[in-house]
Amino acid sequence: MIAGLHPHWLWRVLLVTVGASSYFAAAVVVGIRQVRYVGIPRDQQRRLRKLTIVPYLTSILLASVAGLLNPLGIKLLWESALPATAGGQSGLLWLQYYIPRGTEPKRSPGKLTRSYVWIGGAAVLGVVYIAVLGRGITLHR
User: Fold this and answer.
1) What is the band of 141 on the pLDDT scale with cuts at 50, 70, 90?
2) d(Cα 94, Cα 45) in Å, to the nearest integer?
3) If 96 and its partner were Cys, which of 3, 25, 48, 61 is the partner (CB 3.0–4.6 Å)?
């Protein structure tokens, strides 16, 4: 992307800075929206943690199962898929600590109900992700 642009080191620093800043900002926005939409007061850290750790672990599990099907071998799973997934989704683990103090729920905190339609849809997409992307996609003519 930055080949041919000079000074090269400056472009790298800018890309890293913009990338890290935008990731942090996105995690904060997700945390704020989670408090407001789901109706979880900031003082319910246990509930916030539960709503973020489950998706984090699920993403690692999906990447692991899909990586097992990779024809290039298990080594690629350990060197690439798991670290990238664990790092890329890490915002789910720490976003609760950066939600601004004045953030208040816009709805009353109530019990979240399960939607088996959403669970079923997620399961179907998970299987498609594993079956299609797990083996890899070969792009050739």
Assistant:
1) low
2) 11
3) 48
